[in-house]
């Protein structure tokens, strides 16, 4: 219980919005409100307000949900740069723990390589340590990627803070497996790439979805590695575990009117502007430099 308690810091005041652009309404009356009940209406002063902070100067606390391979890390990292809050991926925390060869390393490697979830206690312990280290450096706010992944994790998070927004990224199932299998990481700089070319056609041959590969620059090309859990068998198990353990978390946030469902229309060039648009962030001047 002690490890869980580390995350149980005093509850911060109720949710706050992104620079006044987001309002989470309990009713669903506006023409621009999404089915999720999240009302994201244009604000006349959107271009002048600093992103990532609400009018009281508090930093945003967002969560990214979505199946393995959907691109949570890519979009979470872009929003992290845009909003000036840290991108915290619990998958990265687990991988760092494994490569540190600490006492939990071999146990964690076994779990990850089977496509199973690490226990709630271990993951909360890793996340607490990361949040504490960030706090010590003066970080505030966060974009969580890969957490919460179980109802229990969602309840614990809900008990300690109010999440502003949960973005649920969705992609056609046939693209998810291909994207996981195509994922490559540069062993030197840590850059993320994808060699898969997703080109889904309808029965009459017309294009349904196209996602170009994200190829590495020449200096990374010879140093690419693949995640040990990105094999076909393990990805299929991760997708099964997602449906069983994490899909209920979508409902947890939907019922609290915090869930924004976003169907990715294609690769980053098509999806990023549309995602910004659905958050009414597309007119903000900072978004022009965030697509790096
Ligand atoms: N919140 C979490 N709860 C339990 N296990 C987690 C959590 N986050 C990450 N993990 C472990 O780390 C692995 C890799 O996570 P991640 O990089 O987020 O993968 P994915 O591409 O499947 O979303 C997961 O399969 C799981 O074993």
Automatic annotation (TrEMBL):
PROSITE patterns: ADENYLATE_KINASE
Name under which the protein is recorded: adenylate kinase
CDD domains cross-referenced by the UniProt entry: ADK
HAMAP family: Adenylate_kinase_Adk (MF_00235)
Gene3D superfamilies referenced in this protein's UniProt entry, alphabetically: P-loop containing nucleotide triphosphate hydrolases
EC number annotated for this UniProt entry: 2.7.4.3
Species of provenance: Actinidia chinensis var. chinensis
Quaternary context: Monomer.
Assigned protein family: Belongs to the adenylate kinase family.
Gene Ontology terms, MF aspect: AMP kinase activity; ATP binding
Entry keyword Zinc-finger: no
Keywords: Kinase, Nucleotide-binding, Transferase
Pfam families registered for this protein in UniProt: ADK (PF00406)
Catalytic reactions on record: AMP + ATP = 2 ADP
InterPro entries hit by this protein: Adenyl_kin_sub, Adenylat/UMP-CMP_kin, Adenylat_kinase_CS, P-loop_NTPase
Enzyme class, spelled out: transferase
Domain of life where this protein originates: Eukaryota
């Amino acid at each position: 219980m002690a490890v869980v308690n580390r995350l149980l810091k005093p509850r911060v005041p109720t949710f706050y919005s992104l620079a006044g652009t987001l309002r989470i309404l309990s009713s669903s009356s506006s023409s621009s409100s999404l089915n999720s009940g999240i009302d994201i209406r244009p604000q006349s002063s959107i271009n002048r307000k600093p992103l990532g902070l609400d009018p009281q100067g508090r930093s945003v606390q967002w969560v990214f949900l979505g199946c393995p391979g959907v691109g949570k890390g890519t979009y979470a990292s872009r929003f992290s740069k845009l909003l000036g809050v840290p991108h915290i991926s619990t998958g990265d925390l687990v991988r760092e723990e494994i490569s540190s060869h600490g006492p939990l390393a071999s146990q964690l490697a076994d779990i990850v390589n089977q496509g199973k979830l690490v226990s709630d206690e271990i993951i909360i312990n890793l996340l607490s340590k990361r949040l504490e280290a960030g706090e010590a450096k003066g970080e505030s706010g966060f974009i969580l990627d890969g957490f919460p992944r179980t109802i229990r994790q969602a309840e614990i998070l809900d008990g300690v803070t109010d999440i502003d927004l949960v973005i649920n990224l969705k992609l056609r199932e046939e693209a998810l497996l291909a994207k996981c299998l195509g994922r490559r990481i540069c062993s030197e700089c840590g850059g993320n790439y994808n060699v898969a070319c997703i080109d889904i056609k309808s029965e009459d041959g017309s294009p349904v979805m196209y996602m170009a590969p994200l190829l590495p620059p020449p200096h990374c090309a010879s140093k690419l590695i693949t995640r040990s859990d990105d094999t076909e068998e393990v990805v299929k198990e991760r997708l099964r575990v997602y449906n069983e353990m994490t899909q209920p978390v979508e409902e947890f946030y939907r019922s609290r009117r915090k869930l924004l469902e976003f169907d990715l229309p294609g690769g980053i060039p098509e999806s990023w502007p549309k995602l910004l648009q659905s958050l009414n962030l597309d007119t903000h001047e900072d978004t022009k430099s965030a697509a790096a």
